[in-house]
Amino acid sequence: MATADPVVGRAAAAAYPEVGSGDGGESGGGGGEGGEGGDGSVAAVNLEAGSGDGDRSSGGEGGGSESGGGLGRRRYWNSRLSTERQRLVDHVFKNSDVVCDVFSGVGPIAISAARKVFNMDARRFISSIYSSQHVHPVTQVVMNLPNDAAEFLDVFRGISWNHHLAVPSCVMPNIHVYGFSKAEDPEYDFHERINLTLGENVSDVEMHRVRLVAPGKWMLCASFTLPVSVAFAKPNYIAC
Ligand SMILES: C[S@@+](CC[C@H](N)C(=O)[O-])C[C@H]1O[C@@H](n2cnc3c(N)ncnc32)[C@H](O)[C@@H]1O
After folding, report:
1. Most buried in the list 12, 85, 127, 211, measured by CB within 10 Å?
2. pTM, 2 dp
3. What spacing in Å lies between the alpha carbon of 163 and ligand 1's midpoint?
4. Given the CA of residue 61, which atom of ligand 1 is nearest to it?
5. Which residue lies with its CA nearest to atom 2 of ligand 1?
6. CATH topology of domain 9-22+80-231
7. Contact between residue 65 and residue 85 where contact means Cβ atoms under 8 Å apart
8. H-helix or E-strand spanning residue 142
9. Domain locations in the chain?
10. 65 CA to middle of ligand 1, Å?
11. How far, in Å, are 57, 86, 99, 109 from residue 114 at the CA level?
């Protein structure tokens, strides 16, 4: 478990996994106060609050819950996703990666991988982290808000517009975006949503079926490298 700068954001996080992959965080380790809900499927930790404003309700994927108001209180997460989180932390992220977990919730992914965590709204975070990319280019972006994350992808359109002189040396991040699909061909359906939001036909998208959340409804993880043409496209929104 991360002990240095144990600051967690329920909104967004950036991680420097070279510090270690932690213990997966599902058993309420490091922060103490592990606990279980009635169905035994949740665990809780006390976390030192960073900055940020307002509270956010738990995201769309079923089963998980977060309780309490502000950070530093008892918070919960869905342990049914622990295998998926471990897949990212143990098999996808490399030690040299800088990971941006934009829907971090209480931070089970970020904490497993991190030593440095921020707390901001997802859109503002992506914009700001990219404006300071000279120091630590982001190499992995996790977007686990299955109901809506694909619709946030437009934030990447033109994200590097201001750095157009650096195109040849620019590192494009691998994006891992989660989504649900009830379609007959869920991979095709989710890929179409991604293309639509990015305004580009993205090739080489690796689809991973995370789990069947209801009969005929898959939770998927789509992984792809952000196309240079998207990152350097003329932005269609003003970054805050
Ligand atoms: C499905 S949970 C995923 C949490 C965590 N990454 C995990 O793997 O368990 C999505 C989280 O994103 C947060 N969220 C929703 N909208 C957000 C936004 N606009 N910016 C940042 N976080 C947001 C929700 O409060 C929720 O905690």
Report:
1. 12
2. 0.69
3. 29
4. 1
5. 59
6. Rossmann fold (3.40.50)
7. no
8. strand 140-143
9. 9-22+80-231
10. 11
11. 23, 13, 8, 8
